[in-house]
Amino acid sequence: MSKKKTKTRSKSKGKPAAQLLLKGKLEVTRSGMGYVIVENIEGDVLVRPGDFNTALNGDTVRVKVFKENTRTGKKEGKITEVVTRKQTEFIGHIQLSTNYAFFVPDTDKPMPDLFIPLAELNGAKNRDRVVARLLKWDKDDKKPVGTVVSIMQPEDENDAAMKELLAQAGFPLFFPEDVQEESERLPDVLDSEEIKKRKDCRDILTFTIDPADAKDFDDALSIRTLHNGLYEIGVHIADVSYYVHPDTELDQEAYKRATSVYLPDRVNPMLPERISNELCSLRPHEDKFTFSAIFQMNGKGEVKQYWLGKTVIHSDHRYAYEDVQQIIETRKGKHENEILLLNDIAQQLRKKRFSRGAINFSSQEVRFKLDEKGKPIAVVVKESKESHQLIEEFMLLANRTVAENVAKLKINKKPLPFPYRVHDRPDEEKLAPFIIFAKKHGHSFDTSSPQAIAQSFNSMLKNVEGKPEQHVLEQLGIRTMAKAIYTTENIGHYGLAFEYYCHFTSPIRRYPDVLVHRVLESILNDQPLTDKKMEEKCKHSSERERAAMECERAGNKYKQVEFLRDHIGEVFEGIVSGVASFGFWVETVAHKCEGLVSIISLSDYDDFRHVDGDYSLVGRRSGRTFRMGDKVFIRVVAANLEKRQLDYEWVINAEDDEKKDKPKNKSQKTKKK
Questions:
Q1: Which of the 8 DSSP states describes residue 15?
Q2: Percent of the chain beyond pLDDT 70?
Q3: pLDDT value, residue 654
Q4: Is 366 exposed, middle or buried (0-12, 13-18, 19+ CB in 10 A)?
Q5: Structurally, what CATH architecture does the domain formed by 568-661 represent?
Q6: Identity of the highest mean pLDDT range in 134-143, 195-204, 443-452, 588-597
């Protein structure tokens, strides 16, 4: 079990307060006061508005502490330097005068207006809503200087909302001109001399399997039967590092973003489309440079030997997941023998992984069918099927093999700095109440070892499949888990049951994969790369990944609220997905839209109290209980797009009515009782 984390003192301990210079992240409150949050230091550093020194909300800064209360530990400081800006692009409107213009940002966090020189308006007129970029803000300037990047159309509410989510999360909406120019200068034709240096795999059957709407194909599979009776299976990954070199404008921009962000109606890419959708995308019937892991395997999925290195491939076919799933289910289709063989091996790899202690949490993705304006007209819940698992297992195999290969190497008896993907064991404090809750549903947990905990999870997940409590136990179980991160300190990946693991297979959309490629290439060239800033890069990548996930969740939530805005007053079946003292959350079964049933709306029925350990609300008079996992019916009463919030009310007799009437459309309107 992992030990409870304790806060450690700063290395600056013992210095007088006036000499403390700390690095942290600035958080600005709505009142305008700022707090710098510093890792490994107890208590934030208070910064008053006059001491921000050009820093904005979310920026990484250096703060000089000039006052500290020795009794309470409260500190006050002054920002001396902005190390990195979280956000450089903002959404707001233009205020235009005869000789100058200002950009007024739409934000609830106080920040100054941007001064926009008339030459930087780029066609914007007074009161236009625009995206503006901060160009410079010198210490002596009262106002920051900016430029208009794009003008937003007033009727396109969706476009503005998605751009605002990205900007607030610190993801640039546009690539700078020098980055675009650098990508445009890259050659279209593969260099003939470079081809000679690589393993040529162009005559081997190769194909990609991706979502139907994907444009950046960064992985492909090849397969052929060898004379020794083994199968040669190649995992071929777009060779982004061939085009994106360290310290170039392209590389710096990719590092800054660190990840692509996938919103319901768009992708905000890590790399310009010239690279992500053209040069590096493994499109069918085109020769491409790749970095490959090629395995010799038998039919049982046992790897007899492997090879890692640079290749050139030619994709023969592009499959969507749905195409492959149909081949698996009907056993007919293009290259069905190869697809079925790969699927059989993938399922055996999957079975072995779970037998070694990997945890089998199921995953469901929410997708939206959108009209031409981006408005959701339907919500689709997608589940992981064998076609997805086929790709997943071979990507996991490649990632694990690369990490194991790199881990063998030592420089001066020390590990090579490398971005491992790690996942810690469950947290004791989170696990304990979950075990008690699971026991109430008849599931016991063996906590004698991390492996025993994993086996208990898998046993529980298998037993609850298809039962009413499945969703709640899965969701609560996931919450007990640590978050996977990038770090040079390898502790293994608990959830996958791998001792060594990294991300090698998606360099078009993840910067750590580019770092992995560079380190691996340096090893294969007998010139191991020792990057002293690798841990810093890992931390940055982990932080950007979290920001992207939060942004994607917010985008999905926006679309769900927008969808149910057209269904106010309608009744849906749902599952209680969370409980608090002020009410309970319900997730609709049909489209996974979560909203709150306020305890105030329940006051007509009973006086409910919150039972924390039981994840429930219990009526004092009636004993009526709302517990996580319970099936209920709700009516949609409000949908607030600005706050991305849904409000529901419990429909007391809907279940009885359904049993009597059995309506085909569970969203049919009912009269309010």
A1: S
A2: 94
A3: 57
A4: middle
A5: Beta Barrel (2.40)
A6: 195-204
Percent of the chain with pLDDT over 90: 72
Q: Is residue 9's pLDDT more than 60?
A: no
Three-state helix/strand/coil letters over 223-246: EEECCCCCEEEEEEEECHHHHCCC
Q: Give CA–CA dist 624/604, Å, rounded.
A: 13
3-class state of residue 430 by DSSP: helix
Angle CA 496–502–507, to nearest 5? 125
Sign of CA dihedral 509, 242, 314, 400: negative
Query: E strands, 583-650, where?
Result: 583-588, 594-598, 608-611, 616-619, 625-627, 631-640, 645-650
Distance from the first to the final alpha carbon of the chain: 51
Least confident of 60-74, 287-301, 399-413: 60-74
Q: List the chain domain ranges.
A: 17-84, 187-415, 568-661
619-652: string of b/e by CB count within 10 Å (b at 16+)?
A: eeeeeeebbbbbebbbbbbebeeeebebbbbbbe
Strand pairing class (608-611; 616-619): antiparallel
pLDDT of res. 655: 55
pLDDT (0 to 100) of residue 224 = 97
Residue 162 Cα distances to 66, 91, 263, 556, angstroms: 41, 11, 8, 10
pLDDT in the model for residue 142:
79
Q: Tokens standing for 430? A: 């989170």
What is the sign, positive or negative, of the torsion defined by CA atoms of 556, 558, 562, 568? positive
Q: Report yes or no: 506 and 219 within 8 Å, Cβ to Cβ.
A: yes
Q: With 0-12 CB in 10 A as exposed, 13-18 as middle and 19+ as buried, what is 419? A: buried
pLDDT tens across 402-431, in order? 999 999 999 888 999 999 999 999 888 889
Query: DSSP class of residue 351?
Result: H
Burial class for 430, CB neighbours closer than 10 Å (0-12, 13-18, 19+): middle
Query: Per-residue pLDDT for 12 more than 60?
Result: no
Distance CA 568, CA 639 (A): 8
Is a pLDDT exceeding 90 seen at residue 127? yes
CATH class of 17-84: mainly beta
* Cα–Cα distance for residue pair 290/279, rounded to 1 Å: 11
The pLDDT value given to residue 541: 98
Contact 383/465 with Cβ under 8 angstroms?
no
Q: Which residue has the tokens 């049919």?
A: 668
For 118-157, give one letter per residue: b (16+ CB within 10 A) or e: eebbeebeeebbbbbbbeebeeeeeebebbbbbbbeeeee
How many CA atoms within 13 Å lie on the side-chain side of 251? 15
Q: Which two tokens stand for residue 8?
A: 């450690």
Domain pair 17-84 / 568-661, same fold: yes
Q: How far apart are CA 173 and CA 133, in angstroms?
A: 10
CA distance 554 to 161: 10
Per-residue pLDDT at 48: 94
